[in-house]
Amino acid sequence: MVDATTAGEMGSPRQSSSDRIVRDIKQGMYEGRFVAGQRLAEPDLMRLYEVGRSTVREALQRLAAEGVVTVTAHRGAQVRHLSRAEARDLLQLLEVTIGLAARLAALRIREPGMREQFIKAYEGLAAFAGREDSYDLVRARNRFYHAMNRVGGNGLLGTLIDGFNVHLIRTYLRRPSQERFADYRAMADAILAGDGGRAEIVARRHLRNVMTALDEAPDSIFAPGAPTQPQTT
């Protein structure tokens, strides 16, 4: 599963109306126009995007399939709201997969054409250092991780990472820019040096830093956790 942003940049000739809705809702989550737990009423979306009900339903079905929204009987669709435990579970999986992706990229970086495409993606991300967060930064960060995966050569790994819906955490859990870009630089330096072990270590450290930020975040930004099941003896 490729993020709609990345798919559009990979040569899709034009976006359908449902493509446009999917992309705008994801962008709106980052910009605060759509927030975790917000109800997405079909009539409201029809007016907002000036499309018919079938187009809105197609977009919502796609977002539901990606895990971005949830659809329940009698309540319709709403932006998915992660509990703290769900966010931590997601980050634990990302720590392993991003670490492996960085290791594989470092091991293949000297193959023809690999260094050039990775450097291009990293420079595109590094250009946002010291600037305010924006959706353009999100797109540059997506390109950086996709370049890492392409260089690493494991297509299944890239599909797994895309399916983790990292944007669900990024929308309301952001670390200081200086710290994030120090992590990106450390990953890029290790990959470009061809040091697979170090690349995996620094990539996993980046995700652990995000987990630390998650642990320090207030309860109010998370959905209530599932009730504890009673112990039986």
From the structure above, extract its key features.
disordered N terminus; 11 helices; three-stranded antiparallel sheet; 233 residues; 2 domains; Four Helix Bundle (Hemerythrin (Met), subunit A); single chain; mainly alpha; disordered C terminus; Arc Repressor Mutant, subunit A
Structure description:
Strands 1-3-2 form a three-stranded antiparallel beta sheet. The protein is mainly alpha-helical. It contains eleven helices and three strands, in the order ααβααββααααααα. It has two domains: 4-9 and 16-79, Arc Repressor Mutant, subunit A (Orthogonal Bundle), CATH 1.10.10; 84-219, GntR ligand-binding domain-like (Four Helix Bundle (Hemerythrin (Met), subunit A), Up-down Bundle), CATH 1.20.120.530. Helix 5 (84-108) packs antiparallel against helix 8 and helix 10 (177-192) packs antiparallel against helix 11. The protein is globular and about 55 Å long. It has helices spanning 4-9, 17-31, 42-49, 53-65, 84-108, 114-126, 135-152, 155-162, 167-170, 177-192, 196-216, and strands spanning 39-40, 69-72, 76-79.
Count the E strands.
3
Mean pLDDT: 87
The secondary-structure class comes to mainly alpha
Kindly identify the CATH topology of the largest domain: Four Helix Bundle (Hemerythrin (Met), subunit A)
Terminal residue distance: 43 Å
> What oligomeric state do the depicted chains represent?
single chain
Helix fraction, binned, reads 55-70%
Strand order of the largest sheet: 1-3-2
**Low-confidence blocks of residues:** 1-12, 227-233
CATH hierarchy, class of the largest domain: Mainly Alpha
Discrete helix count: 11
The CATH homologous superfamily of the largest domain: GntR ligand-binding domain-like
Outline, from the CA principal axes?
A: globular
Radius of gyration: 19 Å
Q: What letter string, H or E per element, gives the SSE order?
A: HHEHHEEHHHHHHH
Number of domains: 2
Strand content: under 5%
- Main pleated sheet: 3 strands, antiparallel
Question: In the CATH classification, which architecture of the largest domain applies?
Answer: Up-down Bundle
